[in-house]
Design goal:
3 strands, homodimer, ligase (chains A, B), alpha+beta, EC 6.3.5.3 (chains A, B), Mth169, Chain: A, 3-stranded antiparallel β-sheet, 2 helices
Protein backbone atom coordinates (compact mmCIF):
# COMPACT_ATOMS: atom_id res chain seq x y z
CA UNK A 1 0.00 0.00 0.00
CA UNK A 2 1.08 3.52 -0.68
CA UNK A 3 0.60 6.36 1.77
CA UNK A 4 1.07 10.08 1.45
CA UNK A 5 2.57 11.89 4.41
CA UNK A 6 2.06 15.57 5.16
CA UNK A 7 4.82 16.69 7.50
CA UNK A 8 5.10 20.04 9.28
CA UNK A 9 8.45 21.03 10.73
CA UNK A 10 8.48 24.17 12.83
CA UNK A 11 11.12 26.01 14.85
CA UNK A 12 10.65 25.26 18.57
CA UNK A 13 8.46 27.80 20.37
CA UNK A 14 11.30 28.64 22.76
CA UNK A 15 13.60 29.69 19.93
CA UNK A 16 13.75 32.92 18.02
CA UNK A 17 12.63 32.64 14.41
CA UNK A 18 14.45 35.53 12.69
CA UNK A 19 12.87 34.83 9.29
CA UNK A 20 9.39 34.88 10.81
CA UNK A 21 10.20 38.01 12.78
CA UNK A 22 11.32 39.83 9.63
CA UNK A 23 8.12 38.82 7.86
CA UNK A 24 6.01 39.94 10.85
CA UNK A 25 7.60 43.38 10.62
CA UNK A 26 7.06 43.52 6.86
CA UNK A 27 3.32 42.88 7.28
CA UNK A 28 2.90 46.46 8.50
CA UNK A 29 4.62 47.76 5.36
CA UNK A 30 2.09 46.07 3.08
CA UNK A 31 -0.90 47.33 5.09
CA UNK A 32 -1.51 44.16 7.09
CA UNK A 33 -0.61 45.27 10.58
CA UNK A 34 -3.34 43.01 12.04
CA UNK A 35 -1.10 40.03 11.26
CA UNK A 36 1.38 39.19 13.99
CA UNK A 37 3.60 36.45 15.30
CA UNK A 38 4.57 34.88 11.98
CA UNK A 39 6.59 31.70 12.32
CA UNK A 40 8.10 29.96 9.32
CA UNK A 41 8.91 26.30 9.06
CA UNK A 42 8.86 23.58 6.43
CA UNK A 43 6.03 21.60 4.91
CA UNK A 44 7.10 18.32 3.35
CA UNK A 45 5.03 15.83 1.40
CA UNK A 46 6.27 12.37 0.50
CA UNK A 47 5.02 8.94 -0.46
CA UNK A 48 5.85 5.81 1.47
CA UNK A 49 5.30 2.20 0.45
CA UNK A 50 4.33 0.06 3.45
CA UNK A 51 2.17 -2.92 4.43
CA UNK A 52 0.07 -0.95 6.88
CA UNK A 53 -0.48 2.56 8.16
CA UNK A 54 1.38 1.71 11.37
CA UNK A 55 4.46 0.59 9.47
CA UNK A 56 4.25 3.69 7.27
CA UNK A 57 4.05 5.86 10.37
CA UNK A 58 7.21 4.28 11.80
CA UNK A 59 9.05 4.87 8.50
CA UNK A 60 8.01 8.52 8.29
CA UNK A 61 8.96 9.08 11.92
CA UNK A 62 12.38 7.59 11.17
CA UNK A 63 12.78 9.85 8.12
CA UNK A 64 11.94 12.91 10.23
CA UNK A 65 14.43 11.94 12.93
CA UNK A 66 17.25 10.92 10.58
CA UNK A 67 16.99 13.43 7.78
CA UNK A 68 14.18 15.96 7.74
CA UNK A 69 14.05 17.62 11.14
CA UNK A 70 16.78 18.95 13.39
CA UNK A 71 15.29 18.03 16.75
CA UNK A 72 17.53 20.43 18.64
CA UNK A 73 15.87 23.38 16.94
CA UNK A 74 12.70 22.01 15.37
CA UNK A 75 9.60 20.01 16.23
CA UNK A 76 7.72 17.92 13.70
CA UNK A 77 4.27 16.47 13.26
CA UNK A 78 2.73 14.51 10.42
CA UNK A 79 -0.43 12.97 9.07
CA UNK A 80 -0.75 9.95 6.81
CA UNK A 81 -3.41 9.28 4.23
CA UNK A 82 -3.79 6.39 1.81
CA UNK A 83 -2.59 7.47 -1.65
CA UNK B 1 -11.32 38.12 17.62
CA UNK B 2 -7.99 36.47 17.08
CA UNK B 3 -7.45 33.67 14.60
CA UNK B 4 -4.51 31.38 13.99
CA UNK B 5 -3.71 30.57 10.37
CA UNK B 6 -1.87 27.46 9.24
CA UNK B 7 -0.52 28.10 5.76
CA UNK B 8 1.14 25.57 3.44
CA UNK B 9 3.14 26.85 0.51
CA UNK B 10 4.36 24.23 -1.95
CA UNK B 11 6.26 24.34 -5.23
CA UNK B 12 3.83 23.86 -8.13
CA UNK B 13 3.45 20.23 -9.23
CA UNK B 14 4.64 21.10 -12.74
CA UNK B 15 7.96 22.46 -11.46
CA UNK B 16 11.07 20.60 -10.45
CA UNK B 17 11.84 20.71 -6.75
CA UNK B 18 15.62 20.20 -6.57
CA UNK B 19 15.72 20.27 -2.76
CA UNK B 20 13.03 17.59 -2.59
CA UNK B 21 14.76 15.53 -5.23
CA UNK B 22 18.04 15.61 -3.31
CA UNK B 23 16.24 14.49 -0.15
CA UNK B 24 14.44 11.70 -2.05
CA UNK B 25 17.80 10.37 -3.19
CA UNK B 26 19.24 10.61 0.32
CA UNK B 27 16.41 8.47 1.72
CA UNK B 28 18.05 5.39 0.16
CA UNK B 29 21.32 6.21 1.93
CA UNK B 30 19.69 6.13 5.37
CA UNK B 31 17.89 2.84 4.68
CA UNK B 32 14.51 4.31 3.78
CA UNK B 33 14.25 3.48 0.10
CA UNK B 34 10.46 2.97 0.46
CA UNK B 35 10.11 6.76 0.72
CA UNK B 36 9.81 8.52 -2.62
CA UNK B 37 8.69 11.75 -4.26
CA UNK B 38 9.66 14.13 -1.47
CA UNK B 39 8.55 17.70 -2.06
CA UNK B 40 9.59 20.52 0.22
CA UNK B 41 7.70 23.74 0.79
CA UNK B 42 7.01 26.13 3.62
CA UNK B 43 4.68 25.91 6.57
CA UNK B 44 3.77 29.26 8.09
CA UNK B 45 1.73 30.00 11.19
CA UNK B 46 0.52 33.47 12.08
CA UNK B 47 -2.10 35.25 14.13
CA UNK B 48 -4.58 37.68 12.67
CA UNK B 49 -6.90 40.07 14.48
CA UNK B 50 -10.24 40.38 12.69
CA UNK B 51 -13.97 40.84 13.35
CA UNK B 52 -14.95 37.55 11.74
CA UNK B 53 -13.47 34.44 10.20
CA UNK B 54 -14.36 35.71 6.70
CA UNK B 55 -12.46 38.95 7.22
CA UNK B 56 -9.52 37.01 8.68
CA UNK B 57 -9.55 34.75 5.63
CA UNK B 58 -9.36 37.76 3.28
CA UNK B 59 -6.43 39.20 5.25
CA UNK B 60 -4.50 35.94 5.21
CA UNK B 61 -5.16 35.50 1.50
CA UNK B 62 -3.83 39.00 0.92
CA UNK B 63 -0.72 38.25 3.00
CA UNK B 64 -0.07 35.10 0.94
CA UNK B 65 -0.44 36.97 -2.33
CA UNK B 66 1.57 40.06 -1.32
CA UNK B 67 4.33 38.61 0.77
CA UNK B 68 4.41 34.92 1.56
CA UNK B 69 3.96 33.00 -1.67
CA UNK B 70 5.46 33.49 -5.10
CA UNK B 71 2.49 32.49 -7.22
CA UNK B 72 4.59 31.96 -10.33
CA UNK B 73 6.36 29.05 -8.65
CA UNK B 74 4.26 28.17 -5.63
CA UNK B 75 0.70 27.34 -4.63
CA UNK B 76 -0.70 28.02 -1.19
CA UNK B 77 -3.53 26.80 0.99
CA UNK B 78 -4.50 27.69 4.54
CA UNK B 79 -6.82 26.89 7.40
CA UNK B 80 -8.04 29.24 10.10
CA UNK B 81 -8.92 28.41 13.67
CA UNK B 82 -10.01 30.66 16.49
CA UNK B 83 -7.07 31.35 18.80
Amino acid sequence: MKFKANIDIMPLEALLDPQGKAVSQSMGNVGLSEITNVRIGKHITLFVEADSKDVASIKVDEACKKLLANQIMESYSFELEEA
